[in-house]
C-alpha cells in the first residue's frame, strides 16, 4: 500500500466501482436512495457475483468455476 488516495492500491475494487456505476448507476434516474441501494444489493448478490464471467478463472462465472 502506497498510502491514502492511491487508486493503484485497490485496483480490483476501483474496477468494480467503475463497472457498477457504468452499468447500473449512471443509466438510471433513481427515485430514492433506498431504491438505488436495493438495486445495488441485487446487482452484487445476483448478477455480478453469480453470472458474470471473469478473466481470472478462465472466463467462467464464479458459480461455474466452483
From TrEMBL:
Example of a GO biological process term: DNA integration
Stated name of the protein: Integrase core domain-containing protein
InterPro entries: Integrase_cat-core, RNaseH-like_sf, Transposase_IS3/IS150/IS904
Residue ranges occupied by any Integrase catalytic domain in the UniProt entry: 3-62
Position of the signal peptide: none
SUPFAM superfamilies given in the database record: Ribonuclease H-like
Domain of life: Bacteria
Amino acid at each position: 500500500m502506497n498510502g491514502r488516495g492511491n487508486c493503484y492500491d485497490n485496483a480490483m475494487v476501483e474496477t468494480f466501482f467503475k463497472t457498477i456505476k457504468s452499468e447500473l448507476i449512471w443509466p438510471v434516474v433513481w427515485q430514492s436512495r433506498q431504491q438505488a441501494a436495493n438495486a445495488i444489493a441485487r446487482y452484487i448478490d445476483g448478477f455480478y457475483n453469480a453470472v458474470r464471467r471473469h478473466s481470472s478463472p478462465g472466463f467462467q462465472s464464479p458459480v461455474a468455476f466452483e
